[in-house]
Amino acid sequence: MNNTFKAYQVEENEDGSFSSEVKQVPFSVLPDNEVLIKVHFSSLNYKDALSATGNKGVTKSYPFIPGIDASGEVIEDKCNTFTKGDKVIVTGYDLGMNTSGGFGEFIKVPAGWVVPLPENISMLQAMIVGTAGYTAAYGVTRLKRELVTPQSGEVVVTGATGGVGSMAVFLLSKLGYSVTAATGKMDQKQLLEKLGANKIIHRNELYPEKKALLNSGIYSAAIDTVGGKMLEALIPQMQQDGAIACCGNILGHELHTNIYPFILRGVSLLGIDSGITKMPFRLKIWELLNEVANGFPKEAYKIVHPEQLRVEIEKILKGNQIGRVVLKHSA
Ligand SMILES: NC(=O)c1ccc[n+]([C@@H]2O[C@H](COP(=O)([O-])OP(=O)(O)OC[C@H]3O[C@@H](n4cnc5c(N)ncnc54)[C@H](OP(=O)(O)O)[C@@H]3O)[C@@H](O)[C@H]2O)c1
Predict the structure, then answer these.
(1) What is the per-residue pLDDT across 16-51, written as a single tens digit (0 to 9) for each?
(2) Count of domains observed in the chain
(3) Which atom of ligand 1 is least distant from the CA of 247?
(4) Residue 102 and residue 261: Cα distance in Å, rounded?
């Protein structure tokens, strides 16, 4: 093995700005963890874009290699939980935040973060799913736990063309739910239909003309990737015993709402944190993905090389990304 590996590395410049470069870096940049993994694929998530542009709420110190997702093969495991050659997935925890991430050809992580690759999923498919698909599946699992079934009624997904949104539309529809996709990109109607959306609406339609403590109960459930005033608008529009899985904060971190949807309609607001899911629940979510993740339409993802990441990062930060971006390491 060489002494260096290829990585997309972000640096903090003397004037406080940040720049990135695909370069050879020494193995010494990797932390002293148990499992050394050769990364075959990673993927681009919103959080990666924040880390790659110097957001210190995500990554405290630079130079740094982002990438909260990785699939690959085990090279060495100091605690012998895994064997050389095992195909594995790592998503979340501290990977790509302050632990060198999947935008490099190698990662070194604690054994407790590593998930064996499920039998029906290839290393590529695992990263088409990535944190986005895992988050969507987490949301679906929580809705199912609240007894939301395909018979309960329409489920709305916000940010529907985004990474989490497109995966949520796809998974829900594969599980037999009727899905309303709420989007700002009405020109992506065909793609959303291909993902399985039953109805496509402009996201502005979710804001009621007249704000009320309770609006008409339209949706049995929601997966909300946007947060802020979008989530505020959704809560009074849920049916009796409706549930919202909320994961995103694109429109901000504050939530101004009222108690009536909760105490007069039994609405549940379900928090989603894909980062630190405990391992038994994490494996259950991958079990669900093992059953339904295959068949994500090829129009809804693209495969890029490290040199193409910068352009894709700019797109995701502007809300212009469509579907999933998979990073393929060449070697
Ligand atoms: N809690 C967790 O564990 C977890 C895990 C993953 C991601 N997240 C969060 O989930 C959110 C989505 O992540 P992602 O990776 O799916 O990002 P993404 O691929 O950029 O998707 C976000 C989508 O939101 C919509 N959007 C953008 N600007 C908007 C605006 N001003 N108003 C309403 N909608 C807007 C767009 O979809 P349309 O054009 O179709 O409307 C966009 O494609 C982020 O906040 C991310 O941090 C949380």
Answers:
(1) 999 999 999 999 999 999 999 999 999 999 999 999
(2) 2
(3) 1
(4) 41
